[in-house]
Here is the input.
Amino acid sequence: MTALLQGIGLQRSYGPTPALRGIDFEIGAGEIVAVTGPSGCGKSTLLHCLAGILRVDAGEVRYRDQDLGLWSEANRSKLRRTEFGVLFQFGQLVPELTAAENVALPLLLAGSGRREARKAATLWLGRFGVGDLADQLPGKMSGGQQQRCAVARALVTEPKVLFADEPTGALDALTGEQVLTEIVHIAREQGASVVLVTHDAQIAAYADREITLRDGVVDRSGLGLEIGS
Amino acid sequence: MKTATLAKLAVAGSRTDKFRMAFTAVSSALAAVVLLAAATVAAVPELVNPDDGSDKWNEQYSSTLIREPGLRPGVVLTLLLLAVPVLFLAGQSIRFGSPARDRRLAAMRLAGATPGQAVLIAATETAVAALLGSIVGTGAFLLLRVLLDRRNADGTLPLPTDVLPSALAVTGVLVLVPVLAALIGAFLLRRVIITPLGVVRRVRTRSPRLWPGVLILVGVFAPLLIRRLGEVLARWISGDLMLVVAFVAVLLAAVAVIVGTGWIAYTAGRLLHRFGRRPAMLLAGRQLMADPWNGSRTLAALLAALVVGAGVLGYRAFMQTELAARDEAWAARGDVIGDPGLDSFYLNSVDLVRIAVAVGVVVAAAGIMVALAESIVSRRRTYAGLVAAGVPRRVLGASIAWQTLAPLVPAVLVALTVGVSLLRGVATTATGGGGASCSGTEAECFEGSPNWVQYPEVTKAVPVPLGDLLLLGGGAVAIMLVVVGVGLVLLRSSTDLDELRVA
Amino acid sequence: MSTSHLMLGLLSVGPQHGYDLKRAHDERLPQAKPLAFGQVYATLGRLERDGLVEQAGQDRDGGPDRTTYAITAAGREKLGEWLAAVEPPAPYVNSVLFAKVVVSLLASGATAATDYLVAQRAAHTTRMRELTAVKTTRESTAGDIVAADYAIAHLDADLRWLQATLLRITDLHREVTA
Here is the structure.
C-alpha cells in the first residue's frame, strides 16, 4: 500500500544554490515524522515542496498517489486549505483580524456561513486554551498565545497532513512543550499525519521516526558521517 | 559619511528598487518639463510702449494668455502650481519599500548608522534618480521646443518656442528638482522607523473622530440651504458679508471632505466588515479599520481635484448659459452678437483649468498607487503566509480591490456633489442682456422717459452638467481601477514564494 | 548519591516497614532502577548501626520484614546536610559513552567507529522517543514527566556532545596525521 504522501527524488534550487539534491521521503496516515538537520540543510524547503507551496525542479510529490506537480496552482491552494494544515514559526496570523476571524478564515473560504465558522473557531480556540482571546487582536497577545491561535487555525479544517516548521522555535521550553503535546494529541485523535521540521533533538523525539538531512540529501547516520546506502 | 560611499550605497538595488528609480526619474522629468515651461513663459520679454511707457502686447503669439503681459504671471503661477504635485509624486516614490531595501537599511543601522543617516541614504537614492530624471526632462523639453516650433497661418506662434529660459533657470531646475524630491522624500519617511532589526511603518491607529463626518454632511446639504439661509441672514448681514459666510461654509465642507478621508475609510471598513459575506470583504474591512489613514492624504488630493473639477464644470455650465442668455437677449433687440473670439477665449481658459484638474487627478491617483504599493509590500509576509496556508491569490486580490474602492466610490460622489453644490448654491440661473441706453441729455434720462430704452433681459436656468460630471467621476474611478490593477500585479510578485524564502 | 540518603529521605515522612520503603522508592522515583529488597535491608542495617535510624516497633513475628523503622534526630541532621550540599559538577567524567567514543575514533578502523556511532545515536534517539511518549500520555503524573525530562535532557546533551566531538576529532586526526 502506497504511503499517504511521498516525495521521490526531489530536487529544488534557489537560483544557483541547490537546496534539495535528490530526496526520497514518505509518510503514512497517522504517522508523525520529524525532519532534522543543521541549518541550511534543506528541511524547510523539503516541507514547502511536500506541502505544494513550492514546485520541485525535478522529482515527484505524490499525495494519495497523485502527482501534485500536475495540479494547477488553484487546486494546490485548495488542497492546502482543506486536506493540509500549515504551521510556521511565526508571522501566520493576519494582524488586522481577531483570533476568531483568523481561525475562521479557512472555513469561510470553504463556503461556511459566518456564524458556523465563528462557532467552530471559538471551539478550537478553546481546545488550545485561548478561547477567551477570541475577539483579541494578535498584536495584543503573547508569542505563546499567538502560536496557539495559529495551531488552531491550522487544525480547524481537520487536515489529513499537518506541516509544522519549527512550530515551537519562538516559544520558551514549557510553552513549546505544551503546544507540541496538544498537537500530538489532536493528531492522534484525528488520525492525521504530521511532518515536523526541527533542528532540536528533543522536539524531534515527539515523532514516531526521524529523517535527517544534510546539504540537501538524506543523512542516514544522523551525524554527518559518510555511510553507504 | 563620504559622498562616494553614500552614492554607492544609494544605488545598490534589486528589481523593486529599479522600479522605484524609474518612477522617480519619470516624475522628475515631468516636473522639470513643467518648470522649464514656466521659466520659458517668464522669459518672454516684457515690451514697453515707447509712446506712453505702458505695457505692450507681444504680438508674435496667437494665444492671448502669452500675448498679454498682464496674464503671463498667472500662467507662470499655474504652471508652478502644477509642478508641485508632480514633484510631490517624485518624493513619494521613496515609500516604495522592498524587502531588499528594508534589509539594507536595517543592516546599515546594525553596523552603526544613525536613523538620520539611514534616511539620508534613502533620500539620496531619490535625489540621484531625480537628477537623472531632470536631465532627461531638460533634454525632452529642448526637443519639444524644436518640434512644436510651428507658425500659424497668420505667422503667429501658438507657443513661446522662440524664447529660451535663462541659464540660471535651467541650472535652478536641475538643482531644485533633485533637492526638493529628496526633501519631500525625507519628510515622508517620518512615519517609518528604521531599526537595526528591520523597517517598521508606524501606523496611525487612532480611530478617526466623528466631526469630519458631520462636516461632510453639512457640506453636502449646506449649499442647498444657502439660498434659504441667505434670505434669512440678509436681514442682518450685508450682501457681501453673506457671500463670505457662504463661501466659508462651503470651504469648510470641502476641507471636511479632504480631512475626513480617514473617517470615510474607517466607516467603509466597518460597513464591509459588518455586512460583507465573503472573506475578501472581511479582510478588506479589517485592514481599513486598522489603518484608515493609509494613503488618505493622496486620496484627499484626489478628492480635492474632484471638488475643484466639479466646481469648474459647474462654472463652465454657468458661463455657457450666461453667454447663451446674452446672445439671445442681443438677438432679440437685433444687435450684433458678441465677439466669438473672446467667448471662446474664456471658455478655453476654463478648459485649460479642466486639463489641469485632469492632470491633478492622474497625479493624485499615482500617489494613491504608491501608498497602496507600500502597504502591500509591507504586508508581504502576512500575504505569503496566507498563500502558503491555502488562501487563493484571487481572494487576496479581491480584498485589495475592496480596500481601495470601497472608500473611493462614496468619496468621489460626495466630492463631486460638494463641488457642484458650490456653484449651484451661488447661482442656478444666468442672466444675459439687460441694461439700458439713453439718447439725450442727462435731465431727460430717467426710467420711463421716451428717450430711455430698456433692453430685455434673458434668464436661463443653468443645467447641471451631468454628462461631464459622470465623465469626471467615472474617469477618476477608472484610473483607480488601473491603480488597483497595478496593485494586483505587485501582489503577485510580492507573494512569489520562490523569491521569499519564508522562514 | 547513595541509597542511604534516599532511605533517610523516605523515612522522614514517617515510620515504615522495609517493604513500604521499597514501594515508596519505586513510586516516587519512576523510570529509575527499582530497588532490590536485599539492598533495602542492607541499607537499613547500616543506618541503624550508624544511629541514623531506629527500630520503632515490632509486629508479632519479629524479623526484619515485620519491623517498623523510624528516623532519628541524628538521621534528620544528616539528611539536612545532604539536601543543603551542592552536587559537584562532575569533575571527572566516567561515562562509558565518552570512553567508547574517544577510543573508537582514535584506535579502531573508520568503518567500525562509524558503525558504533550510528548505532549509539539510533539507540539514544529511540530511548528519547520512548521517554517523550511518557510525557504525552494523558495518564502520566507530574513525577513521571519530571523524571522523563531529566533523562531526555541528558540524552540530548550526550547527542550534542557526540556531534561536537566528531568535529573536533576530525581536526585532531588531521593534525596528528599531517
In short: The first helix of chain C runs from residue 3 to 11. Residues 3 and 39 of chain C are 8 Å apart (CA to CA). Chains C and B do not touch (no CB pair under 8 Å).
